[in-house]
Amino acid sequence: MTDEPMLVLIAGPYRSGTGGDPDAMAANLARLEAAAWPVFAAGHLPVIGEWLALPVLRSAGAGPTDPLADEVLYPTADRLLAHCDAVLRLPGESAGADQDVATARRRGLPVYHHVDELPRRVPEETA
Question: HSE (CB half, 13 Å, CA atoms) of 117?
């Protein structure tokens, strides 16, 4: 148990294995987002790099299959990890998620592979 909420990066496949198919990428994002509630219910704040990177890409007139995507997706996750307390690595091949795990470990952050491994937050007492 912990008394402080953690900012938890949910990492897993987004573009990997999709061949650029927008429906497959949407399904991968939905799978990442499905982990958000369990992280939140454990008392923490979930975040997914694509939640931040995709609007940045759109504002540059690009999308996830544009060549600019590599210059936005990976750096966004790296910058975000400077503020995160932990990573939840979901199953599936993903160079980006593997990079997130390596960055987290270099920075001494815990890496979890199942939401049940996250420490549950002690609820705050109400006055």
Answer: 11
Tokens 């910058």 correspond to 79
75-95: pLDDT as tens digits = 999 999 999 999 999 999 999
Count how many Cα atoms sit within 13 Å of the Cα of residue 42 in the half-sphere of its side chain: 20
Number of Cβ within 10 Å of residue 118's Cβ equals 20
Q: What is the mean pLDDT of residues 41-52?
A: 96
DSSP state letters, the chain: -BSS--EEEEE--SSTTSTT-HHHHHHHHHHHHHTHHHHHHTT-EEE-HHHHHHHHHHHTT--TTSTTHHHHHHHHHHHHHTT-SEEEE-SS--HHHHHHHHHHHHTT--EESSGGGSPPBPPPPP-
pTM exceeds 0.90: yes
Whether the per-residue pLDDT at 71 is higher than 70: the answer is yes
CB 49 within 8 A of CB 100: yes
* Residue 127, pLDDT score: 47
